[in-house]
Fold:
Amino acid sequence: MSQPPSTPAEPSAGSSGSPFSSLADFVALPRISALALSADGSRLAVSVHTLDPEKKKWQSALWEVDPAGRRPARRLTRSAPGESSPVWAPDGSLLFTSARPDPAAAAENGDPQPALWSLPPRGGEARLVLSRPGGVGPVLLAADSGDVVVVSATMPGGSDTEADAERRSKRKDAGVSAILHESYPIRHWDHDLGPAFPHLFWAGQLPDEESPGGTDDVELRDLTPQAAPPTGSGDDAALSPDGLSLARSEEVNDGPASRRSRLVVTDTASGGSRVLVDDPLADVYRPRFSPDGATVVCVRERLATYAEPPDYTLLLVDVATGAASELTPGFDRWPSAPQFSADGSAVYFLADDDGRHAVFRVPVDGGEPVRLTGDGAYSDLNVARDGSALYALRSAYDSPSVPVRLDPAAPLQEPAVLPSPGSLDRLPGTLHEVEATTADGTRVQSWLVLPEGASADSPAPLLLWVHGGPLMSWNSWSWRWCPWVMAARGYAVLLPNPALSQGFGLDFVRRGWGEWGGAPYTDLMAAVDVAVGRPEVDGTRTAAMGGSFGGYMANWIATQTDRFRAIVTHASLWDLDAFTGTTDAAYYWEKEWGDPLREPKRYEQNSPHRYADAIRTPMLVIHGDKDYRVPIGEGLRLWYDLQKRGVPSKFLYFPDENHWVLTPGNSIVWYETVLAFLAEHVRGEEWQRPELL
Structure:
């Protein structure tokens, strides 16, 4: 079938041969996540997501990567439901979760639930280890003993597997879907909370493949029998190396309709728990044990207030006494994901720093953190038990996530990239780092993607993309907001880090705290001024885009300036008062903006809907109905306000997507619609409605 001429999805001539030139090829690129290192350091496992045969969803499989980088990666698992959450047991078996059917059991009715499976050390067929009616979620493993704790959603009074199944069956048979809530909140991200809540179950040492009883040999014991809001256990927990202690974050009430988290330690033999760290002015979470089990490192997040943004540090906590000391005092970045070195003398952690997400090392006996990595954004950090290396996933705006090996002490290093299924051969353009200086003298860092062929003789139209958060930064590869899809079609893409972005110090966050329409907006305009001053960029053909907080900024930009030809706003905040009352965690936002009935000033000054009459720029509104972080009412109100004012606008609505767009088909339609809208208003081409809409 021939295609109509000048379709917006067609790439520019200079980008032929790139997988970003075809949206079908783009969504088919493999995507790597969840790196896990075996106890002996000889094997790495990653989860690789690829399109299923029907091309309707991404399915995951586990692959093995050679830590030495000599052998090519090889696939370990295959099933239609896919496999995820790999964890190596001390005996070399690979544990993972999957909703694959048990080949030894009769077919079951209802939706399959993920269970825990084990792949033998020497290969062969995976076997089912344990299951629960509510499925099995994250798996915790004791590094020395091999003891296992699993997370599973459990009905009230249903810790026993049979009791849990009976309560679920009764609700289903009675046709009951109602949930009774007695405390706030009632939902999270894209799902309702309750009536089942996550519990932590002790499984001990799992039976080996020769065990005659198989799964019948596993007796689960509930370590959190009282788990319910606001004390749900979640997956923020860790086992000591000997398996005798479990450290976990526990949520508690923090005044009316508000919550914070504290640190609790549980004796896995008795089930008894005691509070380890309880700070009324902070959230405390992400515990990790030292190699000897005597100390825990965790994140302390100072709670935000109307006057001050949050701030983060690491704590060292004595497990026996609860005595805590600050590990990163005076460190003007926000540490996350801490874990001990192999000998316990240092802690590794991650932190945003100047448009990167870097690996740091800090001695436990004091000293300044040392940044170990140069460019790139790192995640899934694994420490070799012999102390010889670190392993992680590294991405950047010129590379999706790939497994890498790092020296455990060398500063500002570039890691060794390990063979994997997720590497790219080429990109349809070039990546540049640019800087702007604002009127108050502040430096604003940005990334600029230029398409192939952009020059003074053939300048590219510019897309300003504003990140979400807002307490984050552009620093890593994004499949959902991929600038290379746009570059393959001839657009330059600007990715700025304005006020409120993390990785530039607390004062940089303070510049926009409670004043989203102030410094964040002027920082963005300063970054755009620098970008359009380049000869390769056409400053007369520009558009602005953003999602979540970026969508808020897109809306705010629409009320403040006519310099852009088009604006795309995804999952965006429009009426701040209405948003605060309907989002899934209203108390978080009220800390910054105040109670709208008692402190309306910030709402009145910063809510875009109050300035709707000023909008002249054509707008594309995008929203998912399962978005509980920024509820659909924000998109509906924005759409109505645009329509009744006669602003040229369209509304792309996803009935079954959440804050993100997660399915391949909808992802393609998202890009097709955005590209068609931009082609019409930025390039002056005729509007072409995507075929499937």
Notes: The first helix runs from residue 23 to 27. The chain has eleven helices and 38 strands. Residues 174 and 207 are 38 Å apart (CA to CA).
